[in-house]
Amino acid sequence: MSKISGASTVTIADIQTERVDFAIRNGFAHAGFVVPWKHGQSIDEKLQNAKDLAALAGQTQTARGILGEVDTVFECTGVEACTQAAIYATRAGGKVMLVGMGSPIQTLPISAAALREVDLVGVFRYADTYERAIELVGSGNSLLPDLEKLVTHRFCGLDGVQRAFEVAGKTKDEDDHLVLKVVVEMGGGEA
């Protein structure tokens, strides 16, 4: 959606190299950053880790040069460390879109957001989003990547539901293939 809406550079960050590579290879992002996971014990350590992560992400090479701070972050995990890093990675006057539904209580660097006027925007993805998404998908826009590639596994019928949920709960299947989206189609056995 960001590419279609005019974003000059879309960068994906994930802890899994395969997901980052998939997004770039299939036109969902221009650049990517694999997140090294560090756990801090104290709040100060956690916030420093988030600052370090934001700085490291800002060094990502894109077609337009070094990424630097970004205009908008779509934080889709809800993980406290990711939300913290999103605030630090966003330029002054930018936005952090809070899409992920994580822990209801988080320690966030509010002063870092407030002093740099970084807006934290909650996005509840059900209100007023489907109509626009369907419109964009049906538009035939040449900037839209092949969304079918996101569906990595298909199962058929009610008999396939349990297996579909088992696969959907993993990052890779038993054959070491990347799992992104799992679809159950009404019909026979496993597709």
Automatic annotation (TrEMBL):
Look up and give the organism this protein is from.
Answer: Lasallia pustulata
Q: Would you tell me the protein name for this molecule?
A: Sorbitol dehydrogenase
Record-annotated membrane-spanning stretches: none
GO MF assignments = L-iditol 2-dehydrogenase (NAD+) activity; metal ion binding
Q: Which InterPro entries match?
A: ADH-like_C, NAD(P)-bd_dom_sf
Superkingdom of origin:
Eukaryota
Q: Which residues form the Alcohol dehydrogenase-like C-terminal domain?
A: 2-137
Report the coiled-coil segments: none
One GO biological process term = sorbitol catabolic process
Keyword GTP-binding applies: no
The keyword ATP-binding is annotated on this UniProt entry: no
Needed cofactors, names only, are: Zn(2+)
Pfam families registered for this protein in UniProt: ADH_zinc_N (PF00107)
Family, as annotated: Belongs to the zinc-containing alcohol dehydrogenase family.
Going by the UniProt record, its keywords in alphabetical order are: Metal-binding, Oxidoreductase, Zinc
